[in-house]
Amino acid sequence: MLLWATLRMEMEAKEKNQQLYKPYSSGNMLKCYQSLMLIIPELRGSASCLHSEPEFEMADIFYFCRRGVESIVDDEVTKRFSAQELETWNLLTRSHYNFRHISLRLTVLWGLGVLIRYGILLPLRVTLAATGISLILVLTTLVGFLPSRELRFFLTEKVHVMCYRICVRSLTAMITYHNRENKPKNGGICVANHTTPIDVIILANDGCYSLIGQAHRGLLGMVQRAMVKSSPHIWFDRSEVKDRHLVAKRLSDHVADKTKQPILIFPEGTCINNTSVMMFKKGSFEIGCTVYPVAIKYDPLFGDAFWNSSKFGMVNYLLRMMSSWAIVCSVWYLPPMNREEGEDAVQFANRVKAAIAAQGGLVDLIWDGGLKRAKVKDAFKEEQQKLYSKVLVGEQEQGDNKSSEENPEEDKSYHGSANGQ
Amino acid sequence: MGSNSSNMNHIPDGQQLLQDTGFSAAQIIRLYERFEFLDKDNTGHLRPEDLETVPDLDMNPIGARIIGAFFPPGKETLDFGSFVRILAHFLPADSNRTRAGAQQEPANSTTGKLRFAFQLYDQDRDGKISRDELLQVLRSMLGLQVTEEQLQCIAERAIQEADADKDDAISFDEFRKSLEKVDIDHKMSIRFLR
Prior knowledge:
The complex is a heterodimer. Chain A is an alpha/beta fold. Chain A has 13 helices and nine strands. Chain A has a domain of about 270 residues: 3-Layer(aba) Sandwich (Glycerol-3-phosphate (1)-acyltransferase). Chain A is about 45% helix and about 10% strand. Chain A has a seven-stranded mixed β-sheet, sandwiched between helices. Chain A has a two-stranded parallel sheet with strand order 6-9. By secondary structure, chain B is mostly helical. Chain B is about 50% helix and about 5% strand. Chain B has a two-stranded antiparallel sheet with strand order 1-2. At the A-B interface, α3 and α12 of A face α2, α4, α5, α7 and α8 of B.
């Protein structure tokens, strides 16, 4: 059925005014710096090539001015926090980024789509989801009462997998798992890029993980407490989250116990719109155990899974998910990685991040996901000033700061913004 | 594509902007969406804080000045029309459609672009870049990376080179003259997505 839908959409795409999503060049900081070094001498025209030492020119301001206005019109970071644009319309008004009324036929089709989605698919899915959640609650509590440990482990796995399968069906998620031989094993950490809370269900569908997160109240809290009864998860109180050592200790204790399932961690710390991978917080990479990277890529054609937490609450989001056509995604299990000699946590994190980005076809950005809510650190501005002054004043004073273009400077700001994760 | 103009109805001054600036309808619609995105509290106006949320701008050494260009002294809010007219300075000069009755010179002509850049320097809008103003810009672009003397030196040289009538300040004409070898159109244009 989905194949038919795709074909129809392609037909329509030919009929109508297609909006093409033209990506800007990568926001990689290094590239920005290099362009600064190249463009400013260019700006000055031929006359100043004759001078032995470069001087300030009035035209230098053009470079910064243009960069600034470009970023006002569109920028690499904030657009990662809103849903991705589609090339063709998938008959969902919510991905209606720039489409206008084209023809009556299309509107009729869309109306039909709405009927199907809200009238048939949604109720079906909601019932399924309700069944799934209540089953989790009931069965995990029951299993928790069992005396025998091995029986408990065995049953837990069965129960979990069954419940997650139900949840997955309730979202109509079509998941393709690649490289399952690299599936995370006990006593390690599983690391993945974060797009939506549904990531958890998608991954848990194929294996048992221990989750880590904040302890909530209400329905979610009940589910959390029930889950803990049958298998070890790590739930934090809000007050504890700030204490990094406590977090690290609980993590390492869990990991050291080889009978415990691998922990699922999302180091970005916030939901990104699945076009890029943002900075990984280094906390989970400091523990020194095996890291199993996983790349998750959603195909937004049948339904965009990204959760824009500033726009929609959780319930609203789930309703939207359940009334899309389907959630299509691919999961790649990458070979396990370990921290190497002489590599510190941040470099290790970057290495893992690069692997995940490469596999998932995502842009590897150095920006901190925390920029969703907070402003940029002054260190970045200083970097730009440093480079510009290099162009002007020359290399002599910069000798001791030679490594400024490379990672260490960026690390300083990483440490600052990753504090307390 | 005739349906384009019908979608501009919800954009304030849409038709007027289409005529006055060189933007196409699709570009204006896109800019409107960006405007709405930046306008976090949905007031229909932008304030300086809204522009400050763009990380790239925040870390730009002259970010504050660029924001200042959008908000001239006395104006605390920016409506969509002004937003577009200022951005029109950055259209490539060749995208101007010849319109009958285009009264004044378009914003994206070389002179228009130069004026915009001139105003980045000339904060008090007195028509001249004083030595002080030049020093301030240099300080923003260089931060603490150079000493005060070096800064004075650089400013001194720049003024001497450009200042033709020796009044210790750079007027707009002197500014224009010192940049005559620079390809302004290329350096001060950005690519607006369709």
